[in-house]
Design brief:
Shape: elongated
Number of domains: 2
Helix content: 40-55%
């Protein structure tokens, strides 16, 4: 069975879906579940872990062993290996690298531990139990379409890419190019990774601006941290450059509201996390046989017109 969700969700729709879909969860069996997210340096993953912890408490009878990958594949690999030794009941993981984490996750699967990937997928492991995440290709395409809508006569674009090897970085970049490549009016004048980092988003943008003969029309960031860093670099130079982010962090939503960012992209990280946990717990507490599933959703652009309605974390905006 393959469940594909390709609707545009409001801020609570995915959580409501999880509640309805997994309403039959039993509470008889206590579980130990290891969660591993790439780095707690990033607000996106802090929020996701918070939602996992809250949902585990709400369901009951679940002990979460949370691990911070510290943005290092060896650290995340060691955490998975430790979880295998401890004999956890299941693993929920957002892999740092699409390929490098494959061997460790294969070890877990070979040990009989179901693995659910969330937000980021992993390659070369056919035994992955399930994946819950946004369609990041469509997210990149949404950014490109918004650029075309805002600049119908064409634009010069700087593209700040995510961390090499991370599946969202690969897919968001692919989506942007899917739409813009071959359209002569839209020229990507510089393209460079800033590794999801706000500091690097600022420094990379500064260096790119120095090397350009004229400012770009748009800076497209593969996440909000890089976009917010680029925003500071642009402000320091007094330039009028439109900036797009991705992730709908509260600070980015506020910047969209105030006009500092043109838009960000919502991918419902809290909904992803809760759905992944409910899916895994439901199956571990039932007699269902494992089978591969993909729960996917389309990210949507958050603008000054729709942020109050569609941003998952609107309640955190100051």
């Amino acid at each position: 069975m393959k469940l594909l969700l390709k609707h545009v969700f409001s801020k609570f729709a995915l959580v409501m879906l999880a509640t309805l879909y997994f309403s039959g969860i039993a509470s008889a069996k206590d579980l130990v579940i290891m969660t591993s997210l790439p780095s707690m340096e990033f607000p996106f993953f802090v929020h996701m872990q918070k939602m996992l912890d809250q949902e585990a408490k709400s369901i009951g009878g679940i002990k979460i062993l949370s691990a911070d990958g510290q943005n290092r594949v060896p650290k995340q690999t060691a955490d998975v290996e430790s979880a295998i030794i401890q004999g956890v009941d299941g693993i929920i993981i957002s892999p740092i690298d699409v390929n490098a984490m494959a061997p460790a996750l294969q070890q877990a699967i070979d040990a009989g531990i179901p693995v659910v990937t969330v937000d980021r997928y992993v390659g070369g492991v056919p035994g992955i139990y399930a994946h819950v995440g946004a369609d990041n290709v469509k997210g990149g395409e949404a950014q490109a379409r918004l650029i075309m809508k805002q600049f119908p006569n064409g634009a010069t674009i700087v593209n700040l890419q995510g961390q090499p090897g991370a599946s969202p970085a690969i897919d968001r970049n692919k989506g942007l190019h899917n739409i813009l490549d071959g359209k002569s009016k839209y020229k990507i004048v510089a393209e460079q990774t800033a590794n999801w980092s706000r500091d690097q988003g600022m420094s990379v943008t500064e260096n790119i601006l120095v090397g350009l003969s004229s400012p770009p029309d748009v800076i497209n960031g593969a996440n909000d941290d890089m976009a917010l860093g680029a925003m500071e670099a642009v402000k320091a130079r007094g330039l009028n450059v439109k900036i797009l982010g991705f992730d709908a962090l509260p600070e980015a939503i506020a910047a969209v509201r105030d006009g500092s960012l043109m838009a960000t992209v919502e991918q419902f990280p809290g909904g992803q996390a809760k759905t992944a946990l409910n899916l895994l717990v439901n199956d571990l507490r039932s007699s269902m046989k494992p089978y591969n599933r993909v729960i996917s959703l389309n990210p949507i652009t958050i603008t000054s017109e729709n942020y109050r309605k569609n941003a998952e974390r609107i309640g955190e905006v100051k």
